[in-house]
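[stage:ingest] chain + small molecule (protoporphyrin IX containing FE)
[stage:ingest] validated
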Amino acid sequence: MTADARELAAHFDLERLTPEFYVNPYPTYRALRENEPVKRMPNGSYFLTRYDDLVTAYKNTKAFSSDKKKEFAPKYGDSLLYEHHTTSLVFNDPPAHTRVRRLIMGALSPRAIAEMEGDLIRLVDGLLDAIQAQSDEKGNFDLIGDFAAAIPIEVIGNLLDVPHDEREPLRDWSLAILGALEPVIGPEAFARGNNAVKDFLAYLETLVARRRAKAGNKPGNPERDVLTRLILGESDGERLTAKELLHNCIFLLNAGHETTTNLIGNGLVALLAHPAEKQRLIGDPSLIRTAIEEMLRFESSNQLGNRMIVEEVELGGITMQRGTPVTLCIGAANRDPAQFPDPESFDIGRTPNRHLAFATGAHQCAGMALARLEAAIAISHFLARFPDYALNGEPVRGGRVRFRGFLSVPCTIER
Ligand code: HEM
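[stage:predict] done
[stage:export] tokens:
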């Protein structure tokens, strides 16, 4: 451990990040992991960077609570953002969490996901045709706007059966609502997030009313759309309240959008930065599954998780008191050499690869099979069609610490 690294760890504060950190947080993560793996921040919260500590925190739901009511009250006040984030399943403990999760998991069954494959392939191939046409005309395209971001929005739109011509505002709403989860937000980001929840709620209310009214007061087909499934609830009578229904639909739309966009975008950018691995994947497309896992590990699109200590607990020799917030740094844990040999290298054939990009335990990502399918189809079809794609401008980062990805990546297909 060099003096520089010790300094980096000593001065780390999630509320005061440097521009360099946003570009490349990994040297800081490493310094923290090696020097202060259970780092006390100036605001009294802890920041965890070791793989084993994250697994312990994810699994110990009695001490590490997901309920954010206490933590979000001062941040959001009595606002719609507060109502939204504290009603969505990811920020709740049992029994509220269990009820909603059961309904959502039922709708995202392996069969339901397998049935999406045909539409997904058509969607991806259609986007690739459009990129080809655009490149013929202009010589360039945006890897994010023209490709990565266009996929999840359609997939999640299909999942809730949102009419195609009503999908346009979903992306901005989602970015605004998730943007408000950044460690520090100004009044503008707060207002944007709040307005997005308001507009999103108003839109979903009309969608739910239409769905309920469909076919003579019978809702849509619960086998086909998650919204109908959530409206109907379970056969044993377990239903969501109107508020739970709307906020969890918003959450679902958000959870599956930016994260998957970033997985596809980060993955294709990582291949450009590692040309030998790119050639390896082009030469052996059967590596796509392990390649996607490596992209998830290497540039995790969701870098941070949060928990609240509700029962005194010891971690890494440090006793954490009740009422202490904890940040779980997925991006750091996924490069922990104690778990991953040669963690800074990008190896598309890496096995085993038990990364934490989807977390683990009771709240493990409910959409991970869908995200994996989307990324595998998107990236394998893209590479088959445009093996010589290259940057032709500076990629623009999203500028977020929690959700790591790009806003735009100017590319050419270089035929
Ligand atoms: C690359 C894409 C994705 C990544 C990296 C990702 C990551 C995560 C992570 C880390 C969590 C756990 C949060 C926590 O407890 O702290 C989570 C939860 C969740 N994700 Fe994802 N996600 C992705 C895509 C999706 C998709 C496509 C969907 C839905 C279609 C989805 C739905 C959910 C839901 C519903 C939860 C809450 C689960 C619960 O609290 O029980 N995610 N995701």
